[in-house]
Design brief:
Strand order of the largest sheet: 5-4-3-6-9
Protein name: NagC family transcriptional regulator
CATH superfamily of the largest domain: ATPase, nucleotide binding domain
Distance between the termini: 24 Å
Shape: globular
Largest sheet: 5 strands, mixed
Organism: Bifidobacterium lemurum
Number of strands: 14
Strand content: 15-25%
InterPro entries: ATPase_NBD, ROK, ROK_cs, WH-like_DNA-bd_sf, WH_DNA-bd_sf
Structural class: alpha/beta
Number of domains: 3
Family: Belongs to the ROK (NagC/XylR) family.
CATH topology of the largest domain: Nucleotidyltransferase, domain 5
Pfam family, one: ROK
Helix content: 40-55%
Number of helices: 13
CATH architecture of the largest domain: 2-Layer Sandwich
Radius of gyration: 22 Å
């Protein structure tokens, strides 16, 4: 979610926009000179001198000593002064709320109370779940005044103008929650809300070194649900109502099983954790012990462990899943033409057999001229990548509003 261009004629907005361009350059590159920033941003040296002077006075950036310059000249290095700043990331999933405190570089903060896993009880009312998340955020903000923003990811489709989720499979009552009312104005720091797959794409671009230079990428979230985040020319695509990227509800079989969204044969009915568990129980019930009593996530991880150990039946399941993922990738390539498609979340834990099966489908079904220009890869970020999306939302907001990027 790159910062929008300022309103013409609004001098304060233009000033903040140019400050954010400098801060973003420093975030991407680390220590660099004023001349380096001018070349990257296209701003004049005079403008850079003024902007960096203002940001140094605010404490947002700092000079860090001499560094080599062009033509043998010495330059003064400048760096983002984000060492003491922190953000909160919170992700709502179908069975769990995960939350944590992170540095501005995206690293988790150690220490008591800096991480929370809040299980959602069967039949628990959504408003009670939200209240528990609010309490945890409030407690962290009261304990740590260096926290400058909160990012929250939500399964979708999430409609930001309404503040509500349109439909979420395998859950009760989420459509009744207005997330904007519950979170945006509830705290002393800015709160940013977004669909989990879109935030995941932002995390790949912002925090994954392998994707930072990509202007166009797609992140295919394959977990309890199936979603897509797309960044094109540096901008996260959200759609007119926030529903862009709902690939999980694109039909891959018009005569397939009905989905909660009302469609038939949705990709999510084949690529989600629940779908994998259903196939496992139906076709090879003895393969994973007690699969009926395991959660979808537990059943998938047990299946993937068997596949990694070389079990032939488990590998067949993984390859079948990979083919369905490949059908999704074909749609992504034809619709968005990204440089990179990152396969992420739970299903990516199936590893190379899944990726190979997906690539085989793409090789077979995508025009060679397009196929040659897109790279499919598994997520390499490690850690909790869905939570990383929430963290990226908060960091992106801080980078886009450098004047406010100071501890309370």
């Amino acid at each position: 979610m790159s910062q929008p261009h300022p309103i013409i004629g609004n001098l304060s907005a233009l000033t903040e926009y140019n400050r954010s361009r400098v801060v973003r350059a420093l975030y991407r590159r680390g220590v660099c000179s004023r001349a380096d920033i001018a070349r990257e941003t296209g701003l004049t040296p005079t403008a850079i001198t003024k902007i960096t002077g203002d940001l140094i006075a605010l404490g947002a950036i700092t000079e860090v000593g001499d560094m080599p310059g062009r033509a043998g000249r010495r330059s003064i290095g400048i760096a983002l002064n984000g060492t003491g700043l922190r953000v909160i990331g919170v992700t709502f999933e179908r069975s769990t709320i995960t939350a944590g405190v992170f540095t501005l570089e995206g690293n988790p903060l150690d220490g008591a109370g800096s991480r929370a896993e809040l299980s959602i009880g069967t039949g628990e009312h959504a408003k009670d779940v939200v209240a528990r998340a609010q309490d945890w955020i409030r407690g962290r903000l009261e304990a740590d005044h260096a926290i400058v923003a909160v990012g929250i990811t939500i399964p979708g489709p999430y409609l930001p103008q309404d503040g509500r989720i349109a439909v979420v499979t395998q859950t009760n009552d989420w459509e009744s929650v207005n997330f904007r009312e519950a979170f945006v104005d509830a705290f002393a720091v800015p709160v940013v809300l977004a669909h989990d797959a879109g935030a995941g794409a932002l995390a790949q671009q912002l925090l994954n070194p392998q994707c930072r230079m990509a202007d166009s990428l797609a992140y295919l979230l394959l977990g309890e649900g199936t979603g897509l985040g797309v960044i094109d020319q540096g901008q996260l695509l959200v759609g007119a109502h926030g529903g862009a990227g709902e690939i999980g509800h694109i039909s891959i079989d018009i005569n397939g099983p009905v989905c909660k969204c009302g469609n038939h044969g949705c990709l999510e009915r084949y690529c989600s954790a629940e779908a994998v568990r259903e196939r496992l129980i139906a076709s090879t019930p003895a393969l994973v012990e007690d699969a009926e009593r395991l959660s979808p996530i537990e059943a998938c991880r047990a299946l993937f462990a068997l596949a990694a150990a070389g079990n032939a039946d488990a590998l067949d399941h993984v390859r079948e899943l990979g083919r369905y993922v490949g059908y999704g990738c074909v749609t992504v390539i034809n619709a968005y033409d990204p440089e990179i498609i990152v396969l992420g979340d739970l299903m990516a834990e199936a590893g190379e057999p899944l990726l190979a099966a997906a690539k085989a489908v793409v090789d077979e079904r995508v025009a060679p001229a397009l196929r040659a220009r897109v790279r499919l890869t598994l997520n390499t970020m490690g850690g909790d990548e869905v939570l990383s999306g929430a963290v990226a939302l908060a960091i992106e907001h801080a980078l886009g509003n450098p004047t406010a990027m100071l501890p309370r």
